[in-house]
Each structure stands twice: as C-alpha cells, then as structure tokens.
Design goal:
about 400 residues, mainly beta, Lipocalin, 10-stranded antiparallel beta barrel, about 5% helix
Length: about 400
C-alpha cells in the first residue's frame, strides 16, 4: 500500500495515455503514415523569425508612396590640419652675434587662420520591400582655402622659416625673414553608397544601422612665401597632395522622438579607406647670394604613398518633420553639428632633401623622404532637409 500511495501517478498516467491512443486510432482511417526522419548534415533553409522579436520599420503616412526620398544639406565647416605652422616668431633677437639671447627662443608660432567655409551635400534614397531596407547614395562637396601672413614688428624680432630645405652651406637664407605668408587649399569630394534599415526600438526611439562604401577625393596645396631681411629675392615652397581612397563604411543613426514632430539626433560612422597619395614639393629661391648664384635655384621632391587610413564622423542635432500635401509626402528639417577626423591625411610635407652642392643654374635636387603626417579635422554646422514621396 505504501508503494501505491507513493507512485500512483507513475502507474495511472501511462494507462491514460494508452487508452487515449487507442480511442484516437479507432477514429482514424486505416492507412500507413510516412514519417520523415531528419538526415544528418542535411542542407535546410534558414529559419526566419516571425512576428516575435520583430522591429517595426519607420514608415511615413502617404496616400501615394513611391518609396523615393531626396536629401539636401548646407554645411558651414572649419577644416584644420596638423603640421601647418609655417614660421616661428622670435621676439628675443639681439644684434650681438655672441649674445645668449640668440640661442634662446621667446616668441610664438605663425599658424594659419582656420576659418569656416560653405559646402553642400545631396542624396537620393529608395525604400525597398526587402525587409524594409533602404538604399542611399550621397555626394558631399567641400572646397575651401585659408591663408595667413606675418611680418617683423621690431628690431628685436625675427621670423624663422620652417618650410624650406636645408643645404650644405647652411639654410636657404643667409639670414632670417622679415615677412612670411602661407595659403592652404583643400578640396573634399566624397561619395557614400549604403544600405540600411530604419526601425523602432520602443515607441519613441528609432535606429538606422547601415553598411556600404565610401570613396574620397582629397586634393591639397600648401604654398609658403618667405621674404628675407636684407638679401634680395623671395623663396617659395609649393607643396601638394592628390589623394584617392575607397573602403567600407559602417554607420549608426539614432532618432529620439520628443513631441509634436520634434526629435533629437545622434549619428556616428566609421570608414576605413585604402588611400593612394601622390605628394610633391617644389622650392624656388630667387638669386641666393649665400650660395654664390645669380639665378634661381629649385629643389624638387616627390613620393607616392599607399596606406590604410580611418575616418570617424560624429553628429548631434535637432529635427522636426510632418506630413504635407494632403498626406502624400513627408518633409523633415534638421540642424546638426558635425565633427570628423581624417587620420593621417595631412601628409603634404616632405622630408628634407639630401645635402647638395650648387652645380649651376636651375639646379634640381630629387630625393628625400616623407616627413610626419598628421590628421585633418572637420567640424561645423549642417542644415538639412529631406522629403519622402
């Protein structure tokens, strides 16, 4: 009795299952049932998720949707580069050649005035029916030029040139400069092609991850002019870089819907480009008395560089959008502040040429090595509009 009380469920349940199986078999037609056995390592299609764990796509109410959308942006950016100091201003010069002040530096560097300049970005997108993915192609154009100059203001002030090659007899000038000027020109042309999906995470937060390709054309020129104190003539240093790169891009855009169509934006992107650089330098000095020449002397250097260089883009801003034209279209306006870092793209400075001896008029020296390359930073305002048809 103790056994039955303790294990009565284990005895009764199998009996009930057998009885139910007999009853169901009496109601079924007497036909063979083929059971397919799973095959080991059999190739099967991927099991796609159904409604569970589904992130609803972001859609805009439209009576006649075409799935097309266009974007346009006005940018007002500032571009800054490393290693672009063109002269040192020494405020402690002493006419006495043996004075200790001549071996000390008390002054500041002469740098470019990095100003904000305008540019634009345009894009065309299409929303597909394949799991609500969208395709977007954008073109960004930003060409700018900044300049700066400085000159001696007192008898105890001197300018030390920095973008001039050294030669065997000493520096390219017999003495320091009384005036120096520099001009930097940068041309950015960028094409981004990406595939993304815009979906909800909750009821008021949307997220759009995307992958694609970025192509970059970046041309730079840096021209520096030095005027010596008493020696006649002018020395010029012309430096240029033509870069082209292509590589993968991954981005993450977030929209935080607040109320009444107002939103907060937070975007980030990372690119890794294979870049090909062609860097050139040309330095010309008119009538260099130190080297005993009455004609211009020219120094040239050139080198091609192939490297992998990353780019980081960050943006924060606000937006507002609503349906228009009797709910046939949707418009969206945004204001963002952008910040980008182009790593190792400020590579227009070549190393010094080898020690040379003047050999005649229009002498050309080819050789040398690449100096350090720095980063280029881009930051500024972006005002954008988008319309979905």
């Amino acid at each position: 009795m103790v056994f039955l009380k303790k294990y009565w469920l284990a005895v009764v349940c199998p009996c009930l299952l057998i009885a139910s199986g007999q009853n169901s078999s009496q109601n079924m037609p007497n036909c063979p049932v083929e059971q397919k056995q799973p095959t080991c390592c059999e190739e099967t299609e991927e099991l796609l998720p159904e409604i569970a764990a589904y992130n609803a796509p972001v859609t805009y109410s439209s009576c006649a949707p075409t799935n097309l959308y266009v974007t346009g942006s006005f940018v007002y950016w500032q571009v800054a580069g490393d290693y672009l100091t063109y002269a040192y201003v020494n405020n402690s010069f002493n006419p006495n050649p043996a004075a200790i002040e001549n071996f000390l530096f008390d002054g500041k560097s002469a740098d470019l005035d990095f100003e904000y300049k305008p540019g634009f970005r345009v894009g065309l997108g299409y929303k597909t029916d394949y799991d609500n993915w969208d395709v977007l192609v954008e073109y960004t154009r930003f060409h700018q030029q900044v300049s700066s100059s400085t000159s001696v203001q007192s008898a105890n002030q001197r300018l030390h040139p920095l973008w001039i090659t050294f030669v065997s007899a000493g520096q390219i000038f017999a003495e320091d400069c009384r005036r120096a000027s520099a001009k930097w020109k940068t041309d950015f042309d960028i094409i981004d092609a990406e595939v993304g999906r815009h979906f909800y995470l909750g009821q008021h937060l949307t997220f759009r991850p995307a992958i694609g390709l970025r192509t970059l054309w970046l041309d730079q020129s840096y021209d520096v002019t030095y005027v010596p104190l008493t020696v006649p003539g002018v020395a010029k240093s012309s430096n240029s870089s033509e870069s082209w790169g292509i590589g993968p891009k991954i981005s993450f855009d977030s929209v935080w819907n607040i109320y009444g169509g107002f939103k907060m934006l937070g975007d980030c992107a990372f690119s890794l480009l294979s870049v090909s650089d062609s860097v050139k330098i040309k330095q010309t000095n008119s009538r260099l008395p130190l080297l005993g020449s009455s004609t211009d002397i020219t120094y040239k250097n050139k080198q091609d560089i192939n490297d992998v260089k990353p780019i980081i883009d960050l943006s924060l801003g606000l937006a507002w959008g609503r349906s228009v034209f009797q709910d046939k279209s949707y418009i969206d306006f945004s204001v963002k502040y952008d910040f980008s870092v182009y790593f190792d793209q400020s590579s227009i400075q070549l190393g010094q040429a080898g020690v040379v001896t003047p050999g005649g008029p229009n002498q050309v020296v080819v050789g040398g090595s690449i100096g350090g390359s720095g980063n280029i930073t881009v930051q500024g305002l972006e005002v954008s509009a988008r319309i979905d048809f």
